[in-house]
Amino acid sequence: MTKIIFFDTETTGNTESDVLCQIAYKVGSENFTGLYKPSKKIPPEASAVHHITNKMLADKPSFKDSGDLPKIKKLFEDKDSVVVAHNALFDLVMIKKEGITPAHFICTLRLARYLDKEEKIERYNLQYLRYFLEIEIEATAHDAFGDVLVLEQLYERLKKKIIEQENLTEERAIERMVEISSHPSLLRTFGFGKYNGRKIEEVAKIDRGYLEWLLAQKINGDGIDEDWIYTLKHYLDK
């Protein structure tokens, strides 16, 4: 039987070089949250988002030394487990550094983009979707477990929508969600910069150089930008 595991990490930042300092998950009625001392200091800009400080973690063990790693690794890597995260690629990179590589995952960010074919949603970050979809739940934003609670509700909404749109059974819907999550999203519209709000396909025709420049920035940067790299290569026919 498939085990759906909702999880989230809080980290020292949002680049590939960052590491986790908190992990939370929910599977069935089991909840877990753990805080850990990371291998690098948490900068103020990260603390401003998740409110975890270096002082709070000073006496905590590292994740590797905490004793939690073997249990979480076994659960997440079980062949019957499907881990669910929002912008899952980031969280998967963070836990891979700790030696955890789940066999199956669902990314609710990629699913939300996929299902919003008419682009009625301006942004796809978790808290925006929480309020856009009127998910009423008591949960602290940018706290790992608070985000897990929102994530669970978002997943149920997306699963219901894909069942309805594609006429699937629940089991097949989960398989389809894993399948969609495993491929990069093709983005359609800029949400930043000088072409904010413009279609990427349109910009490719009038300013190919901008897309070339942005692609180089994404490839050479330290962010986790698989969707943007895939999108830009698509519109540049690369």
Report on the structure:
The termini are far apart. Helix 10 runs antiparallel to helix 11. The mean pLDDT is 93. This protein has 2 domains: 179 residues, Nucleotidyltransferase, domain 5; 55 residues, no CATH class. Strand 2 and strand 3 form a beta hairpin. It is of the alpha/beta class and 238 residues long. The relative contact order is 0.12. A 5-stranded mixed beta sheet has the order 3-2-1-4-5. 46% of the residues lie in helices and 13% in strands.
Short description:
This protein is of the alpha/beta class.
Largest sheet: 5 strands, mixed
* Count of DSSP strands: 5
Superfamily (CATH H level) name of the largest domain:
Ribonuclease H-like superfamily/Ribonuclease H
Number of helices: 11
Please report which band the strand proportion falls in: under 5%, 5-15%, 15-25%, 25-35%, 35-45% or over 45%. Answer: 5-15%
Distance between the termini: 41 Å
- CATH C-level label of the largest domain: Alpha Beta
Q: What is the element string, with H for helices and E for strands?
A: EEEHHHEHEHHHHHHH
Helix and strand composition category: alpha/beta
Give the second-level CATH assignment, the architecture of the largest domain: 2-Layer Sandwich
Radius of gyration: 18 Å
Number of domains: 2
Low-confidence sequence ranges: none
Q: What is the 3D form?
A: globular
User: Would you tell me the overall average pLDDT?
Assistant: 93
In the CATH hierarchy, the third-tier topology of the largest domain is known as Nucleotidyltransferase, domain 5
Widest sheet: strand ordering? 3-2-1-4-5
